[in-house]
Each structure stands twice: as structure tokens, then as C-alpha cells.
Amino acid sequence: xxxxxxxxxxxxxxxxxxxxxxxxxxxxxxxxxxxxxxxxxxxxxxxxxxxxxxxxxxxxxxxxxxxxxxxxxxxxxxxxxxxxxxxxxxxxxxxxxxxxxxxxxxxxxxxxxxxxxxxxxxxxxxxxxxxxxxxxxxxxxxxxxxxxxxxxxxxxxxxxxxxxxxxxxxxxxxxxxxxxxxxxxxxxxxxxxxxxxxxxxxxxxxxxxxxxxxxxxxxxxxxxxxxxxxxxxxxxxxxxxxxxxxxxxxxxxxxxxxxxxxxxxxxxxxxxxxxxxxxxxxxxxxxxxxxxxxxxxxx
Length: 299
Description:
The chain is 34% helix and 22% strand. With 299 residues, it is α/β, with parallel strands linked by helices. It has a 6-stranded mixed β-sheet, with helices on both faces. Residues 277-299 are annotated as: Disordered. Keywords: ATP-binding, Nucleotide-binding, Transport.
């Protein structure tokens, strides 16, 4: 997987497709039975000590001591951060708690935290020091709408600061709202990857034209051998053999009022379904992957 520097990459796939296993291999939590794994230019898990200090991660939910407060738990996590000086741990913990909205509950026992609060604390642990890469496995799990918006904001801040973010999620709408790039896994194999815009535009190209005179628009376009049909609020024009500028020019020439013209985009749910259900039998036997790479490449 190629992760452009500063990109937010959404990892999608059906249950059992290998998303969490992929993340665990990338982070050196499990050793692959065959093949190679590389993270930020370092072979994993042998070079974990060189790569992981630059990676923040929240995988399969946070795990903290229930009898300690959120602050006390984070102080113990901070003490193990190789890039964080001992004198700066308390300030770093305070800043991380503030960033995820837990300052007010920082001194409460972890066992009294809601699922959403536990998720926030795990995210705070991943953000204790500046990172090159942040890996989030289902980061909005258990969060209410307000918490979900806050996590979106944090992901946006990370991207703006040049941090690459890998988000694994089954919430397609969340991926569509936060990610710039997408990789789709199916039965352990990457079946598609690229920018979100490119994947959403991968369906049949069409232009949606808003006009108060839709029937005249369809008639004008068909006279010019341009496939078009009525659609809510206007017409849908097939762009397979023409360009959007030509469509608008044709309508104006025939005196049809054009209020708006925009390209139709395939929803992420449709793209996901097409990629993961096209081949019910999975990849061919000789298409077995043997190399997994997570690296930063220029935008």
C-alpha cells in the first residue's frame, strides 16, 4: 500500500478480509507466516524499535488499567515513549487529554469510563508525541455524534500538519467524510487502491444538469446524438462519448436554461459492493500476495 505523505487512507473490506491482521502485521504485533512486511522503510517486526516510535496506533480498542484514572494511565504510557523526555511527560499527557476532550474526566477511574471515553483515551495515547504515521482501527467505535465530529476534526488536524493517517473502518460514510485515499481488501488481497475521488468517479461517467425545462433539454441532446434521460430536477447525460462543456454548449445553443451542471459520482457503498462482490470465488490461486509495504510517497 502506498500512502501519500499527509494523506488519510481508509482501509475497507468485509468482515474477515484481513484489515486488522494487516494492521497487526504492520505494527509488528504478529509475525507473518510467509512474505515480508515493511513499515516506514523498515522491515517488520525485526526493526520495530526504529519504526514504531514514529507511529501512533489504536488497534482493536484501548487497553488500560481499570483501577487507575485516565491521566495516570496516560502517564504510564508516556513513560514508555522513547521520543518523549521524562520532564515533558506531564505536559504531553495534559495536551493529549485536552485534544480528545477528556480534560474534565482525566482524574476519574478508567473502569467508570463509557465506551466512547475509553476510545478517546486510546486516541490520546496515540497522539502523545508528534508522529509520521497514525494508525486507527475503528476510531469512532462507541462515540456519539459529537465525539465522531471531534475525531474527524483530529484526523483533519493531523492531515494538515503533514501526518499520514491509516483508518480502518466499516462505516463507509465515515471513510467518505474523512479520507483522501482508499484501499479495499478482499480475502486478504488488495483489490483496489487510489484517491477517493478517482474511485468515486470510476463508474459510468455522467453529468447531472439542473434545468427548469428538462424535456426540452433531453430533446436537444438527443438531436445531437448525446444519450440523456430525465432525472429528479433535470436530466442525466451520459458522458461516455462527449465532454461536459459540449453538453452545456448544446443546451445553451438550443435555448435551454441551465441552472447547474455537475458530474455524477458513484457512492462509496456502490464502489465497495462492486469491488468485493464481483468475484465471489476470491483471487485466483496464483495471485497470492507475498509483500506488504507501508511507505510514504510524495503527493
